[in-house]
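Posting for a labmate who doesn't have an account.
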Amino acid sequence: MIDQTYLRPEDRAVLSLRTLYRQYGYLPFKMSKFEEYDLYVQNKDFLVSDRIITFNDMGGKLLALKPDVTLSIIKNVENRAGCKQKVCYSENVYRVSPSTHHFKEIMQTGLECIGDIDTYDLYEVITLAAASLACISPNYVLDISHLGVLSAILDDLRPDETLRREIARCVGEKNAHDLRRVCEEHRIGEEDTKLLCDFVGVYGTMDEVLERLSPICAAHEAATIAVAELTALRDHLRATPYADHVRFDFSIMNDMNYYNGMVFRGFLDGICEGVLSGGQYNKLMRRMGHKSGAVGFALYLDLLESLPAEGESYDVDVLLLYDATTPSSEVAATVAAIRESGKTVSAQRAIPDKLRYRETKDIRKEASV
């Protein structure tokens, strides 16, 4: 068994999550570091950033270092009626960092369930998203939304695509003031404007939100169906250890051209942005020529670097110092004895500047610490 004491938070997460996902039958999916550039051009709105590192291969074909994992998985899945492919991954992606505005290699881990997915698959993936957060920290929140609610309301209003995006933006920003202005500019009636503004900021425990949604969605049949699906999800989550960490939050507005149904985002205490993002993306599957459905999520491990340290941290328990006159057999025997005692050890002929150690053991013949 691997001692995780000295691993970075992101490395500990990879080991724990890999074990968790395998318990549910998600098999490792390995992919190339690059794909044909056209794959990303055709789906650039789906990407977090449209800035991509490209290069030409030996045959002149334009390739790109992958900025996304989901597109690569969809490209390589097989459609089999009645079957589901459950895959998990830990991969590096290459995209522009929002903080530095420079390209960054980012490790992300996650899973995808693709095929003839059903209600159970959706529950399983959302439960695993909550379990993933719980593996990293006991202080987490999983926010869940259902795009079908707002989509149903907008379908009844019949706005054009530009207006749909404007309304979705205001809802995502919880900006009721701008939403009212947009509605007035497009001559949306007062009753519908009030309904949309009431929808802004719908957030809270599962029970609180479901109670608040009922009157908002009463006049929209498709929206009531989405609320019923959220109610069933609540009942499922109540039987898990994660229910108290789940909130319904309708400001989560993944692109409705790619996503449908439930979408979600995960947060950890001590990190100011979401570390997990996922949802159902049947529409993306259709755009890429697949008839099946899909649901999955990604966890951005680079953000775990900012988690608060848990107490004092060391790289090794023992720094073992020796010199040129120390017999190699003595160094080897001393290292073995330290390891057998259950401690980690670094054998060095000088003290490294940045090595953190609990204690030293000096077997040098010509000098002492």
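Reply:
Got it, the structure tokens are right above this. The mean pLDDT is 87.
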